[in-house]
Design goal:
Elements: H1 2-29, H2 37-59
Helix pairs in contact: 1-2
């Protein structure tokens, strides 16, 4: 079962890195939208990275 948590951690880490890099590129280009999805997407990416690292460290 711990292998499943580790795989989930790697998946969350990958998704978090993708979202974070994508949102940073949007901020650097100055193309934020008016609804605020960009800052929420960046927060989601950072949270996903933290949870992914936690799962990998705890269950490896």
């Amino acid at each position: 079962m711990s292998g499943l948590y580790s795989i989930g951690g790697v998946a969350l880490l990958g998704v978090g890195l993708y979202l974070t890099v994508k949102q940073i590129k949007i901020f650097m280009a100055g193309k934020q939208d008016q609804l605020g999805w960009d800052i929420r997407g960046l927060g989601t990416g950072i949270i996903s990275i933290m949870i992914g690292v936690y799962l990998i460290v705890k269950y490896l």
